[in-house]
Amino acid sequence: MMKKPFIKELVAFLKDTVSWSLSGGIGYQLFLCLLAALMMLGVYAYFIQMKLGLSVTNMSDIVSWGFYIANFTFLVGVAAAAVMIILPSYIFKDKDLHKVVIIGELVAIGALVMCLMFVFVDLGAPWNAWHMMPVIGLFNWPTSLLTWDVVVLNGYLVLNLAVPAYILYCHYCNRKPDDRKYRPFVFISIFWAFGIHLVTAFLYQGLPARPFWNNPLMGPRFLASAFAAGPALITVVLVIIDSVTSFKIDARIFNKLRRIIVVSALINLIMLFSEIFKEFYLPTHHSLPAIYLYFGLKGHTSLVPWIWTAIGMNLLGTLTLAFNPGQNNTKVLFPACVLLFLGIWIEKGMGLIIPGLVPSPLGEVVDYAPSLVELGVTVGIFALGVFVVTVLLKPALIIEQRFEAHNGSETV
Amino acid sequence: MKTSTFNTGLIGTVTALFVLFSGWAVYAGEGGVTRIYKNAVTPFEDEKRVDASLASPNSLVLVETRYRENPIWTETRKDKLERFRCSQCHNNKTVAVKGAAEMAHGVIVLDHGSPERPLSCFTCHKEDARDFLEPEAGVKVDMDHAYQLCGQCHFRQKKDWVGGAHGKRISHWVGKRVVKNCTSCHDPHSPLFKKRWPATYSPPYKK
Amino acid sequence: MEPRNKSDCSKEKDIARPQGKRCGRRAFLKGAAKAAALGSAAVLTGCGTELLGPKEALSLRWQEYFKKNYRLMTPEEKKETVRRLERLAKIKNNVDIKMSARPPIDGVLFGYAFNVTRCEGYMECVAACVKENNLDRKTHTQYIRIFEMEHGQMSPDSGEGKFFHEVPVEDHFYMGVQCFHCQNAPCVKACPTKATWMEPDGIVVVDYDWCIGCRYCIAACPYYGRRFNWNDPHVPLNEMTRKQHYLGNRMRTRGQMEKCTFCVQRSREGRLPACAEACPTGARVFGNLLDPDSEIRFVLKHKKVFRFKEDLGTDPKFWYFVD
């Protein structure tokens, strides 16, 4: 007898969520239409790739991983960064950050969806993807790091879907969520977030064939850059929410996020300096990839302007956030976070994958730039990610606002 | 109190076991394929284990040197010489055909040895028995066994050839060991390989 | 906690209805549906020509799609898949191939030695390998790379891999690189689906149909030993080698990894690989490492051998030596 109302509640919850996510002012509708158009562009580009094969990308036997995996690597970090909000709000019981935990988790979902999509479009034979499943195929766990990656990414997606869904559902039905039901999963997700990014880092770190990647600093560096770029993205999202919706974000929250970003970004810069020192103090044969990246090698200099721009943006963003000239004014925070995000995106995406593969194991140096098809698919996937975040955020914010209105600003 | 000592003991045991296990794994894995092949001392019985047909060239001759008592065969040479039985001309009678020397030996370019001390015909060919080769005075070597002559100076290459590090095995890695003889690859009169164009090339990277 | 029932939830919904226009939402949904319909139509028309085809080919491909990893197949299943592939080749290209699923020979571990003094850069090995293994002619896929190097360094990094002029050049030497069939292969460890493994006779092989094309193995290989089919490989029918092996030189499709297999279709029948047979100078030595009387063992015992990037611990079964 108790079941029926539960199902009816659930159906009502789902219906409302969908209707809230798709309805809104004209600006919102246009935004969703734009995203849909970009996603269609991505589908079309992927369709070309399916028809003609991966040769329509600019990848080759030397640069065997390109723009797709670069974006995947970066976005795993962004996904993991939700932990930088979950950690203070649940372990240190920070009330301010608790208000925006849900936003962090939803951004993480968007990032994870993008990660999984990037891996999927990069596969040469995606129709064979079932070969990786444990029972029906052969799952080379624990030997292959890729299988670890599959496990942790999907697990993290499930965690990040289940916990906010439960909390939002309870808030929708205007009751407090049961702590015992979801807090263990939150704690698991804290460790799991570190796990996903360490596993992704180990994917590269564990290859002695690629000296640019085969250093112990990859894991910590990944974490540091993720915890700078992720909260930077979350800050950007919060600024947007603050300016276009009625969900107001307090300046204290921006300040706390800013401090988290600054600490991580500074650690990231220290690690960057450590890497640069190792490569350039007494350069060896193993330093050729770094030379290719920062200065060009044998006339191939395509990555040089990108990496220096990235470092410049990284430094500028970090210093702006550190010295905080606007006193947490969102007009200053927004561009600083965007700069930092883009800088880390370049450096951790293309600036990590391509030098790892160039020069080839036999010393050949080639250039790589993504082809139009790769760009099209990437744009489509980014649009998908933004779409997922938008479509999940809108009803979530509405539910949160309603819950607060009814119950005052109590913490859950 | 009791649980904490138990915990410490447990952690200590597990760590010790892990260290021992890793040490064993590293030690056991050491040597790799080198250790595997160095420990492989039993001869490989071809006939029992390879069931594919192993054709070999028709005319072979058994080589008179061996590596580890294993027979090797090599190709014959006499059937490949157009004008063999040199004694058809080189005998007590005079040669009646005009320009016979040019006809018979015109294709030969002699470029063996250094420019300062080149070899002459009779360095290798037996003057009084033209069907044979002469590594040293009085010794007769059949043309099919020319390796014995070549090996007199090129003894390192001969040792390598008998063992398998020089020269080429004909078409199979198992079964009757048939190898190319010296003159299969090297023209005995100008043995150095000539310059030539490669059979193909690696195209420049396009993208 | 108050008892929950439907009416309470729906009342909340009415109060909190957002400002959006109904028309806006409907119009958006309509547009999205149209776009989805168009998109799926486009996809279907594109795939249509491949999906349809002779019925037998369709049924064979269906069965092929669901088969297991080669290592897990019983000998009957292996025979079955070989038969299906032979039949598919006949239907698709009207070519009679003879495919084998020959297992490894007992007591054999293949090893290879390359004489750096004897290689003159003729690249006969490369040409023979391309022909024997049905490599893609369009992208000039080559498993073997020959480097022209100046004296002073032994690393291909310092060499020229794309030379095309009369060889040998004065004061240069030549060195060939290919998959070294490592005993401790990093590519085998990296593969997430176990599509590549080392056979008992030492050859590292790929089950092409099992590969998902993630290319992690290329990242893991320190020797540039592996190749990926970025598009469908093209081999002129009159140049195709008809005698094939399931793990060796059968025709691949796009999205599959491939690599040198020490000519498994030849070596398991006792024949030398195409490269070793084609070399005019006898610079390549191939044989059974477990046979103390073999030529490869003679080389390893009496010659000064070294292996490429030995410090990486991959334990390759390919040695270089000098005279």
Report on this structure.
The complex is a heterotrimer of chains A (412), B (207) and C (323). Chain A is mostly helical. Chain A is built from 14 helices and no strands. Chain A has one domain: Up-down Bundle (Formate dehydrogenase/DMSO reductase fold). The two termini of chain A are 28 Å apart. The mean pLDDT of chain A is 92. Chain B has 207 residues and is mainly α. Chain B folds into 2 domains: 2-38; 58-185, no CATH class. Chain B contains 8 helices and 5 strands; from the N terminus they run αααββααββααβα. Chain B is elongated, with a radius of gyration of 30 Å. The mean pLDDT of chain B is 84. Chain C folds into 2 domains: 55-96; 110-322, Alpha-Beta Plaits (2-Layer Sandwich). The chains are: A mainly alpha (412), B mainly alpha (207), C alpha+beta (323). Chains in contact: A-B, A-C, B-C. At the A-C interface, helix 1, helix 2 and helix 6 of A face helix 1, helix 2, helix 6, helix 7 and strand 7 of C.
Rg calc of chain A: 22 Å
Q: In what range is the share of β-strand residues of chain A?
A: under 5%
Helix content of chain A: over 70%
Which CATH class of chain A applies here?
Mainly Alpha
Quaternary arrangement of the chains shown? Answer: heterotrimer
Distance between the termini of chain B: 69 Å
Largest sheet of chain B: 3 strands, mixed
What proportion of the residues of chain B is helical, as a percent range? 25-40%
Whole-angstrom Rg of chain B: 30 Å
The CATH architecture category of chain A equals Up-down Bundle
By DSSP (H or I, 4+ residues per run), the number of helices of chain B equals 8
Total number of beta strands of chain A: 0
- Shape call of chain A: globular
Tally of discrete structural domains of chain B: 2
- Stretches of chain A where pLDDT falls below 50 for ≥5 residues? none
Strand content of chain B: 5-15%
Task: Write the CATH fold name of chain A.
Answer: Formate dehydrogenase/DMSO reductase fold
